[in-house]
Amino acid sequence: MTTTTTTTTDAPTTAETERALDLLAAWDAQQAAYITHREQRFTVMLDVVDHVVPEGGVVLDLASGPGSISQRVLARRPDVTCIAVDFDPVLLELGRTALAGQPVRFVDADLWDRDWTAGLDGAVPDAVLSSTALHWLPSDVLSRVYNDLGGLLAPGGVVLNADHLRHLDGRTLFAELSARDDERTQRTDRAAGALDWDQWFAEVTAVERYGRLAGERERRFALRPPNPELSLAFHTAALEVAGFAEVGPVWQYLDDFVVLARR
């Protein structure tokens, strides 16, 4: 089993946390260059959290990266606890350092592992949020993860998955408009100073605290296949099969969706 709760041998200093927050802001900027209305997606997700998550509830930030969702959830709802799950040791360490002192626990777990939920230590989330991440999972793994979430969530709990879900049904105009929008957003944001992924990662790993984990990251992902293209229809069908009662897009811009599923 590859699921472990990540810990550090040294707590971050104030200067390290401030630097990590700068790198997290740069992460947000480079991610936004790939997603035209990224903050709108988050706003919709947080509106749902406000509606369904009770006082003192638990939010699972799934495939969390450095914790952008957790950061926003806690800014809106400081009463909740976040659990951020990812398998990238560099991003986990960045998130842990940037959000030090906040009610968020970072868990090192591989969604390919059938026992990944062991790292949650019995926590029952009221909401599961993910952004631009689950597209890395092949269809069989994604279907099983959705099934896992169906058994994990509190009654009435929700899954919110924000991602590009490409038009795979022959609607060429839809696909062309989406591709054109992607290109325009990247061009505009890069001109304004946003880094691309490679530039951002190089900046992060130049910091010894994160650079020391780059080799482990490479080892973990060396044999993973290219990310598949799975449609909106596949995601909704997989969630329905997993037992969710209400499933469908709660927000859309071209081929960018927030899919909502209620247990």
Describe the protein.
This protein has 263 residues and is an alpha/beta fold. The chain contains ten helices and eight strands. It has an eight-stranded mixed β-sheet with strand order 1-4-3-2-5-6-8-7, with helices on both faces. α4 links the parallel β3 and β4. The longest helix is centred in the C-terminal third of the chain and has 20 residues, at 172-191. The model is unreliable at 1-8 (pLDDT under 50).
List the helices and strands and how they pair.
Elements: E1 4-5, H1 14-32, H2 38-52, E2 58-62, H3 68-76, E3 81-86, H4 89-98, E4 104-108, E5 127-131, H5 139-152, E6 158-164, H6 172-191, H7 197-205, H8 208-211, H9 214-221, H10 232-241, E7 246-253, E8 256-262
Parallel strand pairs: 2-3, 2-5, 3-4, 5-6
Antiparallel strand pairs: 1-4, 6-8, 7-8
Helix pairs in contact: 1-4, 1-7, 2-3, 5-10
Note the run of SSEs as H and E.
EHHEHEHEEHEHHHHHEE
Instruction: Please count the helical segments.
Output: 10
**Secondary structure tally: strands:** 8
**What portion of the residues fall into strands of 2 or more residues?**
15-25%
Sheet with most strands: strand arrangement? 1-4-3-2-5-6-8-7
Instruction: Determine Rg (CA atoms, Å).
Output: 18 Å
Distance between the termini: 27 Å
From the spread of the alpha carbons, the general shape counts as globular
Estimate percent helicity.
40-55%
Biggest sheet layout: 8 strands, mixed
Mean pLDDT: 95
Estimated structural class: alpha/beta
Poorly predicted segments = 1-8
